[in-house]
TrEMBL record, chains A, B:
The lineage of its organism: Bacteria, Pseudomonadati, Pseudomonadota, Alphaproteobacteria, Rhodobacterales. PROSITE patterns: HTH_HXLR. Residues 15-113 form the HTH hxlR-type domain. Pfam families: HxlR. This is Helix-turn-helix domain-containing protein.
DNA sequence: CCGTATCCGATGAGATACTG
DNA sequence: CAGTATCTCATCGGATACGG
């Protein structure tokens, strides 16, 4: 029974919404997942993609996503270390949500202003990272 | 594979996602908006719909949504007071996002367990509420 | 390269009581 | 009915430094 009913819910109608949003609630989770939609990423790749996210938060958010079964962490026991993050099937099933968010943002950014707390861009003008270490693709 | 194969973005691909999620980020915002999808609600109606949300938080979240232009607050200068909340057109444009969340939740609740922090239902068993507010018409 | 540990300030969010 | 006020604790999240 995929859908209980369009009018009937086990508890509150907002229940499912809450459960879903709780998973991507967190300062970086949705962005992380969005980035992972396009493929597997390494830790430092993600860091470059989200310049404002400290390693601590990066690890934190990634681990929670992993615990929630949305992200898969693959560790290669090698030197130098290599860790890859990718979306699990469950994580990928979030794609409609993520794309809906993306689509909404694309359609509305800059059109309505950002009244109270909407800062755009994961990497703002806080600090510029001219260059980071080269690519050590294994 | 290319990092940005979707189309072009102002800054980071996650930018739009971030902007969007920032608006519904907050413990109750998405649920509130979801409830408002089905129509205008009064303050205490919403309270009944989200039993776990204290009046303080309710006001807080509602006000932020209002400031962000997603929700419209209508005050009737009457006795007893009457205040109605409804979605603005902008708020309603969030419908795809909210429905995507809802749909995901419906499809996945109870199927994968809730590893670390997923509590379902706005009204959980945090505090025993012996008195179930049935249909107590005001 | 991929993280961890620690410190610490900012904010979130619950309880409770009061008001026009 | 529809909120406010205050107090407090918990958590989030940033900075920085270090480790395998």
């Amino acid at each position: 029974m995929a859908k209980a009913s369009h009018s009937r819910f086990d508890c509150n109608p907002g229940c499912a919404v809450e459960a879903a949003i709780n998973l991507i609630d967190g300062k970086w989770k949705s962005i992380l997942m969005f980035q992972l939609l396009s493929g597997t990423r390494r830790f430092n790749e993600l860091r470059r993609l989200l310049p404002n996210c400290t390693p601590r938060m990066m690890t934190n958010q990634l681990r929670e996503l992993e615990q929630d079964g949305l992200v898969i962490r693959t560790v290669y026991a090698q030197v130098p270390p290599k860790v890859e993050y990718s979306l699990s099937p469950l994580g990928r099933s979030m794609e409609p949500v993520l794309m809906a968010l993306k689509h909404w943002g694309d359609a509305n950014i800059g059109r309505y202003g950002k009244p109270h707390a909407v800062q755009t861009c994961s990497g703002d003008s806080r600090r510029d990272r001219p260059e980071d270490s080269g690519r050590t693709a294994a």
